[in-house]
Amino acid sequence: MTPFFEARDVAKRFHEGTGAEVRAVDGVSLRVERGGFLLLTGPSGSGKTTLLALLGSLERPTDGVVLIDGADPAACGEAGRSRLRRRLGFAFTGGPMIPSLPLWENVTAGLVPLGMGAAERRAFAAVALERLGLGDKLRAAPEELSTGELGRASLARAMASRPEAILADEPLANLDDATQALVVEALADLHRAGTTFVVATHSVRAFPFATAACRLERGRRVDGGGL
Amino acid sequence: MGGFIAVARSGVGAVLLHPMRSVATVAAVTAMLVPVVTGLAVSEGLADESRDAARFGADLVVTGLRFGRPAPIPLTAMEALLAIPEVTSVRPRIVGAIQMGVAREDVVVVGLDPPGGPSGLGAAGDVTVVEGRLFAPGAANEAVVGSRLAARLGLSPGARIPPFYTDREGERWTDVVGVFRSDLPMWEANVVLTSFETAQRFFDERGHATQLLVTCDAGYAEAIREAILRMPTLAPSLSGDPLRPRVFARADVEATLARGAAFGAGAFALHFVLLFAAAVPLLVVATGAGLRERLRETGVLKMLGWGTDDVLLRAFVESLTLAVIAASLSVILSALWLGPLGARGIAAVLLPGADADPGFGVPWRLTPGPVAIAAALSLAIVLVGTLPSSWRAASAEPMEAMR
Q1: Which residues are within 8 A (CB) of B190 and not within 5 positions of it... i.e. 6 or more apart?
Q2: B121-136 per-position pLDDT tens digit
Q3: Whole-angstrom distance between the N-terminal and C-terminal Cα of chain A?
Q4: Calpha distance B361→B274 (Å, rounded)
Q5: Are the beta carbons of A115 and B5 separated by less than 8 Å?
Q6: For chains A and B, what is the number of CB pairs under 8 angstroms?
Q7: Is the pTM of this model over 0.80?
């Protein structure tokens, strides 16, 4: 069976202003089966966010190959990569949001190229935000939200398009216990419905239903897991 | 198709997302377009009036040449012209130059047929008197002066110009009985209109005209022109020297006017090109200032599955909307400036010899052509100004754009 996400010896290197090379991700291989729930763990700066971006084709790997449902984004062309991204949902810490759009438009901006009308998008946004405890923030501007609310809004945006897979970066950061439980419950529901997850987190115990885990340190996989 | 429309609609909405950037762009483009649209409108207005003047004027204008130089034509020549078949009327006109006032202003005196005749410069029927009345026919020594000349010399109805001329019967003065609107084609000259009879006395050329205005049956102008040119002399003289005819047809006048109008429009187009060259770098700087914001926004949209073509379509529609707003605003402002505001300030730039406050109705007409050109060029300016930042944002990887 084809895994939904597969990384083969993937590396991403950046160059700092000083010219020094930074290996954000260094030769990581992993696979996430369709409907799986992979936890990415590791200390801050270990490359979790970069690996999420590589898996979601938000960034091109310097070396190695990433496959999404068997397709290589690097070989798809720009239009093909956009089509692949439409099958995914992304939730990053702190947003990022388009500051001049109200929250409901931010949450459903990904549905615009699909031709969905404003009324329908608003209804989608209402459901997604309500589920994460932000039902009263439909018309709020992103700048009016706290960091924790922005994280949940980002997750609502990832959920709104009902994607096949969600890549989430620290979805429980800056949340109180009750809200963390609300978010975990929402993710568990989606997982049970068949959505594939890759979640970068420090709160491993919050996700007892996770199917796999991968630990990164200094950009390298250190849990000993193979493909 | 639904997605295309939805993305395009989001481009219209994007205008409101960045109000400062939108206002700055519209203001810059409007500031460039208003003088151009205004100039083109005036150019069209002048061309219209010129065409009207030619259309309602005589079919042929005959002047005389002696030794290759312009010479007065004896009125007896009128009979010879009237004898040509299909000629319906021949009217004399005098156009001559004098100097007036302490500053010795160059003035053109036009001696016209009595009012009531056909319109055109050969008659007074199309002259709009804004103050006083028209001159009386015959040797009444009455004149109406152009508004510009009246303002310059402080003349108004009731003023007397002593002595306006001296002829073999002694010094004569002339009463100013009216002021006429000195629009095209006369605003450039200081003009005095008077009766043909009075004009003969001004120049002490009794029984002569400088031009004969010939009207004829439709379709015969060219044949009559050739017939006149075949005449060995317009009128016999005592010395026996021939007075050679020179003939201008209405078609000649209209062709000249068309070339003039095209030249005027070309001058405004050149003006636009120069502004365009200056404006694009400004817009590039202005939009470059918002590049970080645009990059981040584009990164978010691409993360959410927007393609590069979607992002570019959105940017194009945003630019198109800004261009349409700027072009519409330019047309409205130009119409306001030329209409209710009477072209104050810009008349002196557009019309040689006119004052900043022209004192007469500057002719203008906004036609679909210049408006469409303004809209298209407006779009070109905005696109050229915003394209680099839009392209850079659209072609970046999402994570790189959001970083």
Answers
A1: B100, B105, B106, B107, B108, B146, B148, B149, B152
A2: 333 445 667 788 888 7
A3: 13
A4: 29
A5: yes
A6: 80
A7: no
